[in-house]
Amino acid sequence: MTQAPPDAEARRAISPVICYPTDTLPVPDLGLYRSARATAGKVGEVLVPPREGRCFEVKAGQFFRISSVEGPQVGDLNLHNLHDLKERFFSGKTRALHGTHVTTGERLWSNLPYLRPMATIIEDTLGWYGIDPYGGSVHDVIGTRCDPYTGNLLAGGHYHHCCHSNLTRSLASHTGLPLGEAEMLVHDVLNVFMCTGFTRDTGQYFMKASPVRPGDFLEFFAEIDLLGNLSACPGGDCSSEHSSDTAACHPLLVEIFSPVQGALGGWSSPPVNAYDRSHGR
Ligand SMILES: [Zn+2]
User: Fold this and answer.
1) Distance (Å, rounded) from C-alpha 210 to C-alpha 205?
2) 95: CA distance to ligand 1 center in Å?
3) CA distance 60 to 223
């Protein structure tokens, strides 16, 4: 233990400053998205089996909904630019901009140097949950994804149905890429329906039983052409453990909806970030 300086309490008492105030962040036109959504018809669906991953394609201006269908289940979501798989969801910057958990009106941002909104959340039936007394909330961008390497590190063994592996297999199957190449494109996820937080006393990442029930859903507007990749986590509702076959697991349903022509008015897909990329040289 290090010796605290005499002014330790005064230093601790300094109030925090928000790193990225979002008042200058472009605000999505939720009213427009919702009125377009009201005209939309279903154009596709993918059922993600328990402990597996599945890809789906959504065009810019379409909507996709992830639903709990048979029982409480957590999903690990990856997003890529459909035409350039190197542009992918950036959970770290999404967290820095919107906080540890995301809900209606917030966006999933892409990695550098692209840094643009990939998708906007337009509806969240678990929006009522808020932040519970443990500091837990739903749909986190703080976890990474369960993976067999961490499993091997902590417990040994070779479990093959962690979200990382599920996402790797489904991306390889969908794109035709070799497994090893697909694996390098898998990235940190949005933990759909997962209830997580950090303990106050030790700062450790925790999970608890997801409040999701069949019929609950999270719905997105696709800002660019997307390749989605969703894993139904082997942790099921993540009430006890993951990285094994012991938890009760359920499928997740992905549905895609397309609005009628003209319903989005003058909306256009956002360009990549405007920074000139000269980096001072
Ligand atoms: Zn998982």
Assistant:
1) 15
2) 19
3) 5
**What pLDDT digit, counting tens, does each position of 116-153 carry?**
999 999 999 999 999 999 999 999 999 899 999 999 99
Ligand 1 centroid distance, CA of 253 (Å) = 16
Spacing, Cα 187 to ligand 1 middle (Å): 12
CA 145 to ligand 1 center in whole angstroms: 5
268 CA distance to ligand 1 middle (Å)? 34
Distance 108 CA to ligand 1 centre (A): 19
Ligand 1 centre to CA of 252 (Å) is 13
Q: Is the pTM value of this prediction over 0.85?
A: yes
